[in-house]
Amino acid sequence: MLGDELRRRWREQGIFQRLSTLIRSDRVVAVPKFTSRNELVSAGRLPSADGIDGRTLATLLLEPGEYTAPLSVYGGPPGGMPEKYHLSTEFCPEDDQRAMNEALQAIRAIYYRPFGWVPALRLEVPGAVANSLTRLSIALEGIARQFFSPAVVEPYPLFLADRMVKSLGSGVSVIEQTVAQHVADQGVDVELTMLCLQNYRTEGGRGGV
Prior knowledge:
extended; 2 domains
């Protein structure tokens, strides 16, 4: 079963220990592709901006080269309760969970706009980076160097990953054609077989052409 396999990997591959090391590292900067969080508003430093996400708001506010003060990600709103990481003690002892929560609550979000042609980025950094101006400046400089051309509007590794994902469509089409050809050769009723292999919606908005 899938659950048994996941539990086996959790134990044998030390998933918790790897995650704990990752979120405490001073060499990690996360750039989430999307998040519904908006620390600029939830931190209580700005008036309500309903319908405007954090990156858009930061893009409007920040000048090129500027960044926001580190903002709590999992610490909860001012006066509220922090978010808690929780697993059954069967998989994670209470001491480990306490250490994980301390590390999570130290994570900070920073909105950074390196250049005028780039929308603001939302970066998540561990406490070791957020609490050190030297490490933070090194991290921001490393991010800025990823934008070597106005054609690149996100850190270069994300740009490459996005390009790769978008190119998968042509490869999938070839695989679909190969499978359809094989099934058609083996099937008795070719017309019915091909009908079952089709998508249940019109592709491309042109009648499937």
